[in-house]
Amino acid sequence: MQFDDDAGLDTSEVQDRRGSRVPGGRATIGGGVAGLVALILGLLFGVGPDQLGLSSGGDQPGATASSLGQVQRTCRTGRDANAREDCRTVAVVNSVQDYWTREFARRGGTYSPAPTVFFTGRVNTACGTASSAVGPFYCPADRKVYLDLGFFDDLRTKFGSGGGPFAQAYVVAHEYGHHVQNLTGTPARAQDGVAGANSNSVRTELQADCYAGVWARHATTTPSSSTGRPLLTSLTDADVHDGLDAAAAVGDDRIQARYQGRVTPETWTHGSAKQRQQWFYQGFTSGDMAQCNTFR
Predict the structure, then answer these.
(1) How many independent structural domains does the chain possess?
(2) Phi and psi at residue 202, in whole multiples of 5°?
């Protein structure tokens, strides 16, 4: 996975709140063992703090540091993205949003960009106050993706993913899949309060996996808004394998087997390892969001 060294990065698409103190509010889920339990129960992707019973109230005074913070100073070009994890995430955000902007326009629609918020510890959102323990999530109320970069270490050490830069890109692209769903009205179909292997919750998550694959298919051909050339210049078979491996690592069956010693499909919310790989690959091989109808 390689970015154009000379391409400029748009840091306005990332709000860097790392190291920011968050006064007020109540984060009802913290770190340590309780945090790990929350992470497992939340099953990681797409789960906002509102769904985990966290406090409400949105952003509070003092909750943010500089809106751009460190990334504005250090993440200027694709060369930085090739050298630093945080800058690489900025580049992935840029690439994903460049693609969806063009795809919505091609279909006669308008894509509304969504910022990604980097944080450490905990963060206030329009969906509530969340700690890092809930993992990456998309909050539809403020249309932002929230990410503690420490999760990428958890992906390897707690969930058995092989890791790699594209495994991280998959995580980000999946969350933006939820933003695409929010713009197209999909989440309303998932609010049936039902869990299980055939639930709308699972179908919603698998569709976000598929959308991540669609972006990956076009990532090396989508012109950057800054240069007119693709920001991502190389994506290898090994990179795609890393994405598939990450998708499998966060399958409901893998997580349940690892942490509770048994698999209970009636409680699934995100889909099995095989399903998550299948739908990511469906998006990647088709390159067509119309082929991501997991509700059929």
Answers:
(1) 1
(2) -65, -45
Domain range spanning residue 268?
2-292
CA distance 119 to 100: 24
Residues 6+ apart with CB under 8 A from 107: none
Complete DSSP assignment for 187-248? HHHHTT---STTSHHHHHHHHHHHHHHHHHHHTTTSBPTTTSSBSEEE--HHHHHHHHHHHH
Please tell me the distance from the alpha carbon of residue 273 to that of residue 200, in angstroms, as a whole number.
Answer: 17
d(CA 109, CA 123): 32
Give residue 66's pLDDT: 47
- Helix, strand, coil tally for the chain in percent (to 5): 50, 10, 40
Query: What CA–CA distance (Å, rounded) separates 16 from 19?
Result: 9
Tell me which amino acid residue 234 is. S
Range list of β-strands (E), the chain: 2-3, 14-16, 116-118, 122-125, 128-131, 137-139, 144-147, 232-234
What is the rounded CA–CA span in Å between residue 180 and residue 111?
A: 8
* Range 162-197 burial, b when 16+ CB lie within 10 A, else e: ebbbbbbbbbbbbbbbbbbbbbeebeeebeeeebeb
Q: Are 138 and 36 in contact (CB under 8 A)?
A: no
Strands 232-234 and 2-3: antiparallel
pLDDT (tens digit per residue) in 19-61: 876 654 443 222 333 333 344 444 444 444 444 433 333 333 3
pTM: 0.85
